[in-house]
Every structure is written in C-alpha cells, then in structure tokens.
C-alpha cells in the first residue's frame, strides 16, 4: 500500500527507457525475458534447463540475464539504493522464465549476511523469494541459515569455494519428495549455489533447482558478444535523481 501511494506521488521511471510509471516498464521486461540466458551455469553449454554432462547437486537451473546493462542498473537500485519497488518486476521476470511449480514447491533464498541486512534495511533475497513464491503459487521458507558473515566480493574462486562451504547451515531434515528451488541474485563463481545445493542434498532433499537473476560476465568481451545479453533499446536517457 505504501509503495502504491509513493508511486502516485513520486512515480518511478523505467530503468532502461525512462518511461514514467514503473521501475521497469512492460515492454522492457518482455524484451529481457525473451532474451534470457539458457546456458548451463557450470560449463556454459546451451541447455533448456538441465545439463546432461555436468555432475551437479541440482537438476535444473534458470538464469534471467548477464549482470550488465539495464539488469546491472536494476540490481544496483535494489541492493544499494534501497529501491524495494524493484523486487516485484525482478520476480515477475523470474516467474516468466521458469515453468509451473507445484503448490508444495519451496523457494529457498540464499541467506543474506546480517551486516548487509542492517546496511540495506531489509533482506533483499528473502523479499524477492516472497514475491516469486506468490507469483508461482508456491511457498518460501528460510530452509538455510547463515553461519558466517564473510564478504565474497573481490575474493578469488578458491577462496569463495572455501568460504561458501562454511557459510550456511540447515538444521532440519528435508522432504525427499519436495521440490526445493534455490534463489540467488548474482552468480559469479557458483560457490554459494553449489554449497547450498550440497547442503540441501545432505539433508535428504532430492529435487533441487536453481533460479538466478544475473550471471556475472567472465569478461566484457564475453558478455557483449553473447546474443542473450542484448540490452533493450533505450528510448530516452535515464537519469537517477
């Protein structure tokens, strides 16, 4: 309700084209979901949702985009400028690229570190999970909890993998017949996702999938050359005030 009132008083501009009314307009959302990534998170081979060659703790994965262009701007607004209104359009795009889930599917957000929650004033991944669960008509639950508050930004791949193995805990036995969908915003080395999936599997989960908002490009040249990283055509310059 508060967000609706604020949108009337001080409406957002589309993060891409600048159109007034929403943080991301319908046309730009549709363009992004149409060009979503359909690659294996580990090896990069084009797949529909599951890779037949990689041995992973999860069966399927869906990724919206690379972390560049409008997606980078949207993430920055959401995480670093506390623009909570960005959670809904992000969730809507993730809901579009994922198949229908059963009612007993559980969206499992990767736990955010406590310092980041205090800094931002909210848990951005948990909020995104709530929106996505509502749109997919399923459930969300903090199945995983965070044990450490180590900062992975700027760390090497080896260090990320070591940190991730100690980062989370799961203090419950899971249902082997329940579909658990791990949700994270950015995939860089995959350390957090793989550690979370391993932990769920160690606690009896057998049906595990992964949903990612954005994959960190390996390099500018890689991301710019990929057809799935196209930016929606910008109609006007967006100025953040």
Characterization of this structure:
- There is one protein chain.
- This protein has helices spanning 2-9, 26-34, 69-80, 87-97, 114-120, 124-136, 157-167, 191-202, 220-225, and strands at 60-66, 106-109, 139-140, 145-146, 168-169, 179-187, 207-215.
- The strands form two sheets. Strands 1-7-6-2-3 form a five-stranded parallel beta sheet, with helices on both faces. The chain has a two-stranded antiparallel sheet with strand order 4-5.
- Helix 2 packs parallel to helix 4 and helix 7 packs parallel to helix 8 (191-202).
- It is α/β, with parallel strands linked by helices.
Q: What's the pLDDT, averaged over the residues? A: 85
Structural class: alpha/beta
| Beta-strand share of residues | 5-15%
Low-confidence parts = 220-229, 235-241
**Order of neighbouring strands in the sheet with most strands:** 1-7-6-2-3
In short:
The protein is of the alpha/beta class. It has helices spanning 2-9, 26-34, 69-80, 87-97, 114-120, 124-136, 157-167, 191-202, 220-225; strands at residues 60-66, 106-109, 139-140, 145-146, 168-169, 179-187, 207-215. Helix 4 (87-97) packs across helix 6 and helix 7 (157-167) runs parallel beside helix 8.
């Amino acid at each position: 309700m508060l967000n609706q009132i604020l949108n009337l008083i001080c409406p957002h501009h589309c993060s891409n084209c600048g159109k007034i009314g929403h943080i991301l307009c319908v046309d730009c959302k549709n363009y992004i979901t149409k060009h979503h990534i359909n690659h294996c998170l580990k090896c990069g081979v084009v797949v529909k949702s599951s890779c037949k060659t990689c041995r992973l703790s999860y069966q399927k994965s869906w990724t919206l985009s690379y972390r560049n262009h409008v997606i980078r701007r949207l993430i920055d607004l959401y995480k670093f400028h506390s623009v909570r209104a960005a959670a809904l359009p992000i969730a809507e795009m993730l809901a579009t690229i994922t198949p229908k889930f059963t009612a007993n599917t559980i969206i499992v957000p990767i736990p955010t570190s406590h310092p980041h929650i205090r800094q931002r004033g909210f848990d951005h991944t948990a909020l995104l999970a709530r929106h996505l669960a509502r749109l997919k008509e399923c459930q969300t639950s903090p199945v995983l909890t965070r044990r450490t508050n180590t900062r992975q930004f700027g760390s090497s791949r080896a260090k990320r993998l070591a940190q991730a193995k100690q980062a989370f805990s799961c203090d419950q036995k899971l249902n082997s017949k329940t579909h658990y969908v791990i949700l994270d915003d950015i995939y860089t080395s995959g350390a957090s996702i793989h550690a979370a999936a391993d932990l769920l599997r160690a606690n009896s989960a057998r049906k595990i999938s992964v949903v990612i908002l954005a994959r960190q490009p390996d390099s500018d040249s890689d991301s710019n050359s990929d057809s799935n990283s196209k930016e929606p055509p910008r109609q006007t310059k967006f100025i953040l005030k």
